[in-house]
Write a structure and sequence with these properties.
With 348 residues, the protein is mainly alpha-helical. Helix content is 59%, strand content 6%. Strand 4 and strand 5 form a beta hairpin. It binds zinc ion (ZN) (2 copies). The site of one zinc ion has 6 residues, from helix 10 and helix 13. This is Fatty acid desaturase.
Length: 348
């Protein structure tokens, strides 16, 4: 593997070239959150109070699902402290933004900010990193799944993207809640249960088909959209012993209008370099990276990243490669030359 550098090494070289404003909180980004909140409330009220046919209800579900994901991206940003600085307000707004996906703000800060960001793609310490071949060898259920052909596993895992975010978040809750002291863990429990009270409560308030269109379908769509980005963030990159954001992260490209609606979530390498920065300035960071380290930076269209995720297995082999235990084929990671038009493997 090439020489690795930590986040500070890159940040020190780029930050003098960025405007001071880039690191100031930007409360005006809450207008986007307000717009999505209005769309979500109106969408749910329209489905539950009106009698439209299922095609119109489904179209509203699509808009709701898109909004669930988008406001989640804003929640991510808020909880990094780039929108407001006041602690309680940050947690309240972040919690509200993550309400549709049922993730509590304190859990998110522990899981995402303190664990994932601090230990990205570390084999043991990153809660979001995929397992190594050694870890795989001790997991009997996963071993059973990996007896199935790659195309079937891909179909299964892409379908599972529609619940993965909330499911993984729930798993994280039960792992991390034990690490908090009593008072904080009660807070975590309340934040965990509250969204479910709301969404299950809605089930008892409205007819089942209206609940499906107003919550269940948007929940699945929202999870799927969020996970399309998240699964492309690091899963094609190698595991690393040093948190080098250019080696362990991938930025995807999407149409400009989608970047606006998704709060620039596509710039993931830039985000790992400067998690406390207003995402409006990520394109400037990208320009600087491309000037200084064009060969180290990974980027591709989101659709290409998804295609690569479909066509490659997810178990790491010697940190830099991916192995399909079923036929012992070893695929390259992005660091070893994996490209959308160049998927190569060799046999173990
Ligand atoms: Zn990440
Ligand atoms: Zn983040």
């Amino acid at each position: 593997m090439k020489e690795l550098h930590n986040i500070g090494w890159y940040a020190n070289k780029i930050s003098p070239k960025l405007p001071k404003n880039a690191f100031k909180p930007v409360p005006s980004r809450l207008f986007g959150g307000l717009a999505y909140t209005i769309i979500i409330i109106c969408g749910i009220l329209t489905i539950t109070l009106c009698r439209f046919n299922n095609i119109i209800n489904f179209l509203i579900s699509l808009v709701l699902g898109f909004s669930f994901a988008s406001i989640g991206f804003l929640g991510h940003e808020i909880l990094h402290g780039t929108v407001v600085k006041t602690h309680w307000l940050k947690n309240l707004l972040g919690g509200m933004a993550f309400l549709p996906l049922s993730i509590g703000p304190n859990l998110w800060i522990k899981w995402h900010n303190m664990s994932h960001h601090a230990n990205t793609q570390h084999e043991i310490n990153d809660p979001d990193a995929w397992m190594s071949f050694e870890q795989f060898s001790n997991r009997s259920f996963i071993k059973y799944i990996y007896k199935l052909p790659l195309w079937f596993r891909s179909l299964f895992s892409f379908s599972a993207l529609s619940i993965s975010f909330t499911l993984h978040g729930t798993r994280m809750f039960f792992i991390y809640v034990k690490e908090f002291k009593r008072q904080k863990s009660i807070k975590l429990w309340i934040q965990f249960i509250l969204p479910w009270i709301i969404w299950i409560g809605l089930f008892f308030l409205v007819e089942t088909d209206k609940w499906i269109f107003s919550y269940l379908l948007p929940f699945l769509i929202g999870n799927f959209i969020v996970m399309c980005y998240i699964s492309s963030n690091h899963r094609l990159n190698p595991l690393v012993p040093i948190n080098d954001p250019l080696v362990n992260s991938l930025s995807v490209t999407v149409p400009k209008w989608l970047d606006v609606l998704h709060f620039n979530f596509s710039y993931h390498t830039e985000h790992h370099l400067f998690p406390g920065m207003n995402p409006k300035y990520y394109s400037l960071v990208k320009e600087e990276i491309l000037k200084l380290w064009p060969d180290r930076y990974h980027q591709m269209p989101l659709s290409s990243a998804l295609k690569l995720l479909w066509k490659t297995p997810r178990i790491y082999y010697n940190n830099e490669e991916l192995i399909d235990p079923r036929n012992k084929r070893i695929y390259t990671s992005l660091e070893k030359g994996l490209k959308p038009n160049k998927i190569s493997y060799h046999n173990l």
